[in-house]
Specification:
Blueprint lengths: L1 H34 L4 H8 L3 H7 L6 E6 L6 E7 L7 E5 L10 H9 L3 E5 L18 H15 L5 E6 L1 H15 L6 E5 L6 H15 L3 H16 L8 H5 L6 E6 L7 H10 L5 E6 L6 H5 L1 H12 L3
Parallel strand pairs: 3-4, 3-5, 5-6, 6-7, 7-8
Antiparallel strand pairs: 1-2, 2-4
Helix pairs in contact: 1-8, 5-6
Length: 312
């Protein structure tokens, strides 16, 4: 009888070890997938498509290209700084997934022409960034705060504006939420086609994996979330920007597009509805796709920005 009990205990132990091993490997694969959404090489290749605009719009203004130390790790944050001698304030800009600090050139020039100094920087796994992990804004938002602190030192007077597009919109929302509890550096938040709950997009990928392998979505999410928490102390639930938006107290202006297939219109609406005050504005551009309006209609977008920022 004792031998049978011992055999059962050993068998259960082996099953538990096997389950732990499978969970570790599955979690690691999920983690690698969701934290490496793009590579520096891919973003630098994409940057080439914007080089002509960058050279025409930004280079003549003699931007400062440098880096600052991240408060979160042993890496630097590369940035571009357009100093406006007559600056009425400063704008910090956060690019979307696949972009870099240079791909924002047209919008950087828009803000510069409005009389602002402008800073754009490379997010994780983008451009020249040394940060290793994509976390849909959760950890990236700390870099945003570091850039904001630098920006605040550069402009003594005038508002500090935070602008983010798409994936960078989620980062900007989370940075603004963190800022409310810390230094309160940001005066205005502007978003274009922002990403809200990234889990909505990741679940679509999980479904493809499930269809191909038969591994349940619930197990993929559980093991990936567990690995993510152990490795980075970030939960999948943390990646919903609309949950962070309910902490924002500053004025917010959001544009989105009714034909957006990447961050559908409801995402901007989710963020808008979560903001707990009435100094918020949402404009849906009819007939446009993802982030198209701001680049194809710069004069109209500039007029909207000027009205929101109450510029003369």
């Amino acid at each position: 009888m004792k031998k049978w009990k011992l055999a059962i205990v050993i068998l259960l132990g082996l099953i538990m070890v096997a389950f732990a091993g499978v969970t570790y490997l599955t979690g690691q694969e999920v983690f690698n997938g969701v934290t490496h959404l793009t590579s520096q090489e891919e973003t630098l290749e994409n940057e080439k498509h914007y080089q002509e605009g960058y050279e025409n719009l930004i280079v003549p203004l003699e931007p400062e290209s440098a880096s600052l130390s991240s408060s979160q790790g042993n890496y630097d944050i590369p940035y571009l700084y357009l100093e406006n001698d007559q600056a009425k304030g400063i704008v910090v800009m956060v690019h979307g997934l696949g972009g870099t600090k240079k791909t924002l050139a047209p919008i950087m020039r828009t803000f510069y022409d409005m009389g602002y100094s402008v800073i754009s920087y490379d997010q994780a796994n983008s451009g020249q960034s040394q940060a290793n992990y994509n976390t849909f804004g959760v950890l990236e938002s700390y870099d945003t705060l570091d850039v904001l602190a630098f920006a605040q030192e550069e402009v003594a007077d005038g508002p500090v504006v935070l602008w983010g597009e798409s994936y960078g919109g989620a980062t900007a929302v989370m940075a603004a939420a963190r800022d409310q509890e810390r230094d309160q550096m940001i005066d205005y938040l502007i978003l274009d086609c922002p990403l809200a709950d990234s889990n909505e997009m990741i679940d679509q990928v999980f479904q493809l994996v499930t269809d191909e392998t038969g591994i349940p979505i619930s197990y993929l999410k559980w093991s990936g979330d567990l690995f993510n928490r152990v490795k980075l102390n970030v939960r999948f639930a943390d990646r919903d920007a609309s949950e962070w938006a309910n902490q924002i107290t500053i004025p917010v202006f959001i544009t989105n597009a009714d034909q957006d297939q990447l961050t559908p219109p409801h995402m901007a609406q989710d963020i808008y509805q979560a903001i707990p005050h009435d100094q918020k504005y949402l404009e849906t551009m009819q007939g446009y796709g993802h982030c198209e309006f701001t680049y194809s209609e710069p004069e109209a977008y500039q007029a909207m920005l000027a009205e929101f920022l109450q510029d003369d």
